[in-house]
Amino acid sequence: MKIAYYPGCTLKAHGKNFEESALCSLKELGIEVFEIPRWNCCGTVFSLAADDIIHHIAPLRNLIRAQEAGFNSIVTLCAMCYNTLKRSKARYDESSDVRDKIRRFMDEEKINLNGSFKILHYLEFIRDEIKFENLGPKIVKPLKGLKVASYYGCLLVRPKGIGFDDMENPTIMDMLVTSLGAEAIDFPHKTECCGAYQTVDKPQVVIQRVAQILKAAQERGAEAVAVSCPLCAFNLDHRQNEARQLEADFKPMPILYFTQLMALALGCSEHSLRFDLNEVDPRPLLKQKGLI
Amino acid sequence: MRINISQKKIRDSFVQKIQEISGQNLLVCYQCGKCSAGCPAVAEMDILPNQVIRFAQLGLKEELLNCRAIWACASCLTCNVRCPKGIKIAEVMEAIRQILLRQRLDHVDINKIPPDKRKEFPAIALISNFRKFTS
After folding, report:
1. What is the ipTM of this complex?
2. Per DSSP, which regions of chain A are E strands?
């Protein structure tokens, strides 16, 4: 199987640990990856203003790049890219007026986007195409004894019709973690916003939220938190030290991309897991569990 | 806080503008408060999300354009998915921000972020912040 892959900006820099672990896991699963050429930033946020059409062009151009290369779907890893690409496509599909405006704006594009073109998140691709039960035979290092809380955040699950799991009680990442041999820890803050981009101008707000989220996960026995969004990862990981200064009653907790857990279980080398980019070093915990 | 309500304010083009930019019918709201009950940002808000809708219905322009609440909202969409009337509260917040941003009244000044801090932030944090809080 061959997939068109859209990386997005952060996965090529701060989120290299997300990309490299994902690519290694895909290789182990026998999936061929085609990174679309000339991709551009999706804009990170879907424009919520009804009259703002121009901001949908950047995400849509990426889909055209994939379609030009002969694909009718695209797989992405970042929760924010996923949300923006999928919502822009939905906006494009829902009204002929919007569609005409967008086409006029980008008249140098030679082809029109297919109505049936699909935007998939890697988690969704695993669930629906690869299927969790087929992961079993490929696992060389079951993550036995590792207690992982999955943090979904906002954009994998909201709004309705865009998210690919239950809006209030998503379980897809927990199912993945379980199929990798780890113990999934449910916790009430799994879809509670971490403060996202407020981290730039109001870091104190984010620090407080991070403390609440991580404490809740730890109180339920989690040893690590799995994420799918580089912005959630930055907040939970890089703001953790400040959060601990605020509320000292929780221990440092590694924040791992779900792809790092996958790659580990599928037998990828430590080199491709890129733990050097994780702020809270997950290696002591993984060593203690005999996983590295 | 003393608030004056008037026909003039309710009929002000400000109300129409919010409805137009947000694509929402403000009068659908019956003030159940579910949006505020689930909002993770209420601790930082001076006007709660349900009050933002009420203020918008009443055309309380000055109160809304000067509130902290619209900048505390991170568009997590929890309110939107829980509203029993299907109002997209986050879109209303966006509309009020846009009314200011479209006059070049930025909430964030890029130059005030120290260069060494800028380097620490991943692209995703900076781009989304500037998309939401600058014109």
Report:
1. 0.96
2. 2-6, 32-35, 73-76, 118-121, 147-150, 183-185, 224-227, 255-257
